[in-house]
Every structure is written in C-alpha cells, then in structure tokens.
C-alpha cells in the first residue's frame, strides 16, 4: 500500500451549529471554531471535518445548500472561513468541508429555474417525472419518510425526486453539465487550501433508472429508498471522474459517506486505486438497526453483533486500505449512550470504548464531545428539532405505536442527541453561548464539561489526549497504522480483544466489556503493559483477572 500523508493522523468532526457561539445569537459559528483551535490541537487532532456551513435555508441544518459559493451568515463570512483555514494551518490542522452534492436546496437558483420551466435546461438538472394519474411514479420512501416524489407546484401530474426532505431535490448526475458545475465548485474550494472533503450521502447519486417499485416494508405501503442503491449500476465511473478532476490534482483527502456496500464493492472504494481516500465504517455503529423505524432499532447496542461487525469490517479491509472508525457522528445517538448500558456509564466504560475504537486499524475519527464522554439527554416531543426525528415519530404513530413508545424510541435514537451544544464549562448554557441556544443543552453540563475535565488528571478528556498521543507516538505509530488486525477470544462472552502486528512487533488489546469481573487465560506471556485504563492490572500465572470495563494493551 502506498503511504499517504493522512494515514497516521487523527480526525475530529465539528457540528458547527452546536460547537461554539462567538456572537451570542445562540448558534455556533466560525469565530467560535477559531477560538477553540488550540483545544483541538491539544487533543492531538490533525484533520478537522466541519459539517456544512454554506448558504442554506437550514431545513436539514445546512445539508440543503442554496449557494455552494457562499458561507451562511449565521456562521460568518467568507473572510472568516479563509481565516479559519489559515489559523488551522498554523496549528498543522487541515480542514475538510462537507460536500453535499447528491442534492441541493429547493431554494437553489437551479431548482427555482427548473420549477419555472421543468422542460427547459434546468429541468435537466433534476429528476422530473410524470406521475400515475396524479399519484407518485413509484412507491419509494424517502430517508426522512413520505414519498421520494413531490408534485411540482402548478402541475397536476409532474413530480420531482428527493431522496431526503422535499426541500432537498436530487441533482441529476447523468447530466454532464451538472457534473461539470459540481467539479468546478469543488476545485474552487480546494484552491482555498482545504485538506479535502467529506462527501455526503454519495451512494445516492446513481439512481435505479428503471424506477420500478420496491417490495413494501412498512405500514405506509412503501419501500425504503436505500434498497434501490444495490440496483443502480455504474456509480464508479462518476466517482473516479470526480477523484481525477477534483482531489488527485491537490493530493486532497476525500472521505465518503458510503454505506450498503458489498464486500467486493468496498475494495473499489478505498486503497491505492479507490474512488475515495477512505470511507466511514458504519457497520459496527448500525449493528443495532433491525428495520426501517427507530422503533425497530435495539437499545443499547447488542455486544455480540457489534463485535462481529467490527471484526467483519476489519477482515474485509485486510491490508488494502483504511476505513475511518467512529463510535458516533451527527446522525447518531451519543456513542457513550448507545454502546454502554446506562447503569454502566462511567470513566472505565467510556475509556474502554475509546481504546477499542482508536487502536483498530483505520483512521480514528472523533465527534465533538466524545472526548469528554457526552451522552444522550431526555426529550419532550416539542423539544426535538431534527427533521428525521419528527418524521420518525409520526411514522411510528402511523404504524400503530403508542405515543409513549414512539417518544422513547425517538429519545434513544434521535440525531438531536449528538447535536446538543458542546459542554465547555458549568456556567450558563455550558459556556456555549451568552444568548439562547438553538437546541437544548444537556442538563448534566454542570458535572460534565471540558473545564472540569481539564483540571482532573484522571478525566476522560485527559485519557483521550494520552490515548491519541499513544496512537501517534514514535514507538507505536507505525504498528497502530499499518499493522495487521487479528481478532482474539472471538467466542468469549463480553471480551473484546484483538492483535495488531507489524514486522515482528505485536500489540494485544484486551478488554472486559462488562460490569462483571472476568478471568482470561492468556495465550502467551506478555511482560510489557503499554496502555491501561485502571492503575493496577492483576495477573496470576497466565490468568488475567479483569475488572469491569478494564482494558489493557500488551506488547510482545
Ligand atoms: O446522511 C445520509 C444518510 O443516509 C442518513 O439518512 C443517515 O443514515 C441517517 O440520518 C441516520 O439516522 C447525510 C448526512 O450525514 C445527514 O445529516 C443529512 O441529513 C443527509 O445526508 C442529507 O444530506
Ligand atoms: Ca453565532
């Protein structure tokens, strides 16, 4: 495998609305991110992905873009953005912007024109189709619920296509003019000195152009649109074109939000000749999803399935390329809530989860607040902001769920859990804003915040700093980056363990992922303990006595 500049790095995602507000309007902004760059640098981060900050009506918090060449005023100005890129660079941090090009906003001038003249030039920028006697052309359900088809205002039987909200019309990638416009825009941003892009919802750009119905999978008589992804062929051609035109010339880092891939396909997406530099490893985080509704997701994460999916992913990748490992992002509940039973939450469980994630093969990708152990909050229906959550609630009610059950499922799985403001200190609004925050702060901020954890050597934050420093240290950087991955104790209950190996050097990660003590028979003698989350480790002969959520890394 060819070595790349980003292989040995650590990455961090910012959800800008919720990170830091610098002007008191209750919304995080670029000025706030600049204020916190030293904090991010001290954590050991080299790559910073920021969710969309382009001009947007904010129906989906910026994932609906009305001008790709402008910064939305709620976040600041283009000068602020240039300053952010420059200030980050001074700290050896590169910025990834979010590339949302499966769709734009219904307020984008292209779509405004298309609505006026669906048969004209801009109509070709989108997917417009005739319905069936005033009904949608097929039964596909959009990601956020309801049909993927929306009637064009003023027409009886003409519809446009949207994979997500109706305010997010899908762009027609079959049209070379659309692709050209997109590539020009990406290059324009790369010229500004970005490190690269995170590429949103990219699997959806290639449609199943037969548009045939899906098998019904819900009470609404529809089928989930993601099931058409495997039917669509030829996405690789566009992805390679984009790579050659936009990323290769700048040695840019491109990380795709690609899911629903088969084993064979994954190999085409990453590695030396892959469509992208890397993609996110979603399978382990989605192992609790058993259906299309929040109500069908398990809570908390079933351990066996999570471990199996992790090992499965690592095996598929082999030594061919890197996925980015995550425990959470802005679309998921908090990792410390999903992966840890509520009664077990604490320093040991959170740090065990951190070690398991960060020492795997792949790029460690953190999400804001993960480094202090932020968790889900309690919700009332009226307090949700997220379009997906609100739609899921109604989807569940329409499917016969009780109000209590629907609210409970939304409280667990809502994307708003990850979007509550970052907890900086124990002052008003957790130090996030002087104004009124756009989304509720988690009530636990007095106990759980950055400032408090800065002061305590034994805090989750300081543990994360040591762990990232360990991952990037002279001694272990190579093995943790390029070493092979081999599962251990695969059939042992509650034990999550693996071996990393490179040119005779070996690291063994063993974790008792449980609230009960466990005894493990080691396969060999290991003298050198190199990383732990408890002060004392207990070994009797070759028997390792593990405390609840204890994690140990041995070197051999
Ligand atoms: O998400 C793509 C996606 O497939 C989502 O449906 C995701 O699986 C789901 O929200 C998980 O609950 C991307 C962005 O990450 C998301 O924030 C946007 O809402 C979406 O695209 C539309 O741009
Ligand atoms: Ca602000």
List keywords for this structure.
556 residues; alpha/beta; Oligo-1,6-glucosidase, domain 2; Immunoglobulin-like; eight-stranded parallel beta barrel; five-stranded antiparallel sheet; binds 1-O-alpha-D-glucopyranosyl-D-fructose; binds calcium ion
Can you describe this structure?
The structure is a single chain. The protein has 16 helices and 23 strands. By secondary structure, the chain is an alpha/beta fold. An 8-stranded parallel beta barrel has the order 1-2-5-10-12-13-14-15. Strands 16-17-18-23-20 form a 5-stranded antiparallel beta sheet. The protein has a 3-stranded antiparallel beta sheet with strand order 6-9-8, with no helix packed on it. Strand 8 (149-151) and strand 9 (158-161) form a beta hairpin. The longest helix is centred in the first third of the chain and has 15 residues, at 176-190. 49% of the residues are buried. The site of calcium ion has 6 residues, from loops.
Mean residue pLDDT: 97
Please count the helical segments. Answer: 16
Helix content: 25-40%
**Global shape:** globular
Poorly predicted tracts of residues: none
List the strand order in the largest sheet: 1-2-5-10-12-13-14-15
**End-to-end distance:** 25 Å
**Could you say what the CATH architecture of the domain at 484-555 is?**
Sandwich
Which superfamily, in CATH terms, is the homologous superfamily of the domain at 484-555? Golgi alpha-mannosidase II
Give the radius of gyration. Answer: 23 Å
């Amino acid at each position: 495998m060819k070595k790349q500049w980003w292989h040995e790095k650590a990455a961090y995602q910012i959800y800008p609305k919720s990170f830091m507000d610098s002007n008191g309007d209750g919304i995080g902004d670029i000025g706030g991110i600049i204020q916190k760059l030293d904090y991010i640098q001290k954590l050991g981060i080299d790559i910073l992905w920021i969710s969309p900050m382009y001009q947007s009506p904010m129906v989906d918090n910026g994932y609906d873009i009305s001008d790709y060449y402008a910064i939305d005023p709620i976040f600041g100005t283009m000068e602020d953005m240039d300053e952010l890129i420059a200030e980050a660079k001074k700290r050896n941090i590169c910025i990834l912007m979010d590339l949302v090009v499966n769709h734009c906003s219904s307020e984008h001038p292209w779509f405004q024109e298309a609505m006026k003249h669906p048969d004209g030039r801009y109509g070709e920028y989108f997917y417009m189709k005739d319905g069936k006697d005033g009904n949608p052309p097929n039964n596909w359900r959009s990601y956020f619920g309801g049909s993927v088809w929306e009637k064009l205002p003023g027409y009886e039987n003409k519809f446009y296509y949207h994979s997500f909200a109706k305010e997010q019309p899908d762009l027609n990638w079959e049209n070379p003019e659309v692709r050209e416009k997109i590539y020009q825009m990406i290059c324009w941003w790369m010229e500004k000195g970005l490190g690269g892009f995170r590429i949103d919802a990219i699997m959806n750009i290639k449609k199943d152009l037969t548009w045939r119905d899906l098998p019904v999978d819900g009470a609404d008589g529809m089928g989930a649109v993601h099931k058409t992804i495997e039917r669509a062929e030829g996405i690789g051609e566009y992805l390679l074109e984009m790579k050659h035109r936009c990323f290769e010339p700048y040695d840019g880092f491109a990380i795709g939000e690609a899911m629903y891939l088969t084993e064979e396909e994954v190999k085409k997406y990453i590695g030396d000749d892959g469509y992208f530099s890397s993609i996110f490893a979603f399978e382990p985080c989605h192992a609790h999803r058993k259906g299309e509704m929040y109500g069908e997701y398990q809570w908390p994460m079933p351990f066996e399935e999570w471990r199996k999916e992790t090992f499965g992913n690592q095996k598929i990748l082999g030594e061919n390329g890197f996925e980015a490992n995550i425990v959470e992002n802005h679309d998921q509940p908090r990792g410390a809530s999903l992966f840890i039973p509520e009664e077990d939450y604490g320093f040991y469980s959170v740090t065990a989860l951190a070690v398991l994630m960060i020492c795997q093969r792949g790029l460690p990708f953190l999400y804001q607040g993960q480094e202090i152990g932020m968790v889900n909050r309690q919700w009332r229906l009226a307090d949700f902001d997220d379009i997906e959550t609100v739609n899921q609630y109604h989807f569940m009610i329409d499917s016969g769920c009780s109000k209590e059950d629907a609210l409970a499922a939304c409280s667990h799985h809502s994307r708003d859990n990850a979007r509550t403001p970052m907890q900086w200190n124990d002052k008003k609004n957790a130090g996030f804003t002087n104004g009124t925050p756009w989304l509720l702060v988690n009530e636990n901020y007095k106990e759980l915040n950055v400032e408090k954890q800065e002061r305590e050597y034994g805090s989750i934050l300081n543990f994360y700093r040591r762990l990232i420093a360990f991952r990037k240290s002279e001694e272990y950087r190579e093995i943790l980056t390029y070493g092979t991955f081999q599962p251990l104790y695969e059939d042992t209950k509650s034990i999550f363990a693996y071996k990393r190996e490179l040119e005779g050097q070996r690291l063994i990660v063993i974790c008792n992922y449980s609230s009960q003590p466990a005894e493990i028979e080691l396969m060999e003698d290991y003298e050198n303990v190199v990383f732990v989350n408890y002060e004392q480790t207990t070994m009797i002969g070759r028997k390792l006595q593990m405390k609840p959520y204890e994690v140990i890394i041995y070197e051999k």
